[in-house]
Write a structure and sequence with these properties.
Number of domains: 5
Structural class: mainly beta
Distance between the termini: 111 Å
Number of helices: 1
Strand content: 35-45%
Largest sheet: 6 strands, antiparallel
Shape: elongated
Length: 497
Amino acid sequence: MRTKVKKLTSVILAVVIATLLTTVSAFATSNVKGYPAIPSNIPQKYYVIFSEGFRYGRTEMSVFDIDATCKESNKVIVWDGNLTLKDHSKFKNCDQYYINENGKWEKFIENYPVMTDKALKIIDSNLNVVDKNGNIIFKSSKTTVPTITSLTNTASGIKISWDRVSDAYGYRIYYKYSSEDWKKLTDTTSTTYLDTQVIAGRTETYTIRCINKSGKTISGYNSKGWSKKYTPVAPTISKLENTTGGIKLNWNKITGVYGYRIYQKTSNSWKRIKDTTATSFTDSAVSVNQTKTYTIRCIDQKGKTISGYNSKGWSKKYTPVAPTISKLENTTGGIKLSWNKIAGVYGYRLYYKTSSGGWKRFKDTTATSFTDSGVSPNRTETYTIRCIDKNGKTVSGFNSKGWSKKYTAATPKITKLTNRSKGVSVTWNKIAGVYGYRLYRKYDGGSWTKVKDTTSTSFTDSGAKKGKKVIYTVRCIDRKGKTVSGFNSKGWSITRK
């Protein structure tokens, strides 16, 4: 982070402190651009502090021994963004160096204070040695404490943003509540982080430290931290769509809330219609071509609203979708059609495809199923459906391809066997679309024998043997006498009296 440095008029300090002893040795062997190498005889126990200026035509550098005369407590204080020494005189005996006529650093043995009469170089707020234009000449070993620049409430939590520290590999974020101790939240190499573990109405406090590649902290931290009360943002309806069930609302999930309250706009106000913990809802109370406007607020477990709302809302005109035939099945009565219920409509109009390829209307109904008895065995029928209003006007589109089913006649079931004076009376169920039926008889251990072809659904078998157990079954036939259905191989039995 860069800061402007005030113009220095008299004795101006230019000091930089290396706070990590492990990096001091790097200072001792590094070159400052445009200057000779720093003296190599400085042991690692020393903190290196640069103060460059002219005195008696010499460029000077100061090196302070914190274990000797120059105590750490007397070293440097930061005041209003500028570095100053508490007491110049206390640094009289600290080691100082200057550049001699040969361009080499030489130890300055006079007992003068550290500071020179006039400084040519100054120090920026990151403790880097810079020139009067702010260009870094030598980088400090001191790592800047990260500063959180913004805490923002978002739909997903609190977004933390901070300034990048140039010599940091990454950052360790801490959090706390109230007077609790700091707890690690995460490590990251980014300069932003989204805390999703927030709770509506609770104040979160954060601070940050710099870390190296090994995960070791290399900076201090702001002990007070930065605080933000998490207030959920107003939900945003992301999608309004016409569905079979009505108008479906979808909205973004808001972190830290219990649920959501959905409102519908009336002529002059908002009307509450639903509380839910989901992020979608289908309004089935719709009418064809009606436009509805919705908005949403967050709520807590007690049903209290804890967010704002979009006062304009989001609007959608309800247009019924085309019904979908969900099932086509062969039954005794013909092909049974089943379809999905469409919200807000009066009824449905059924169409079948003619041999010429066009659609022909054949049934209006308020139900969601219908059995087409006008079928023929082994013929494929194709159907489609549209929604209608009370006046019989179509109010939806339709599936132009339709849905198809080949009609296969069901196997007849014998429903009644009765002994009569003239023989055994056999009755069976009617099968749609067939011409007639073939009745079969057999006795225990025997094979099936044709008894009668008939267009009726009953027949009295006078040929059944008295005192014998007689078994019957039935198949469907067409006009040519060809069987067009299966049969029950076990049949149904009665003892002829």
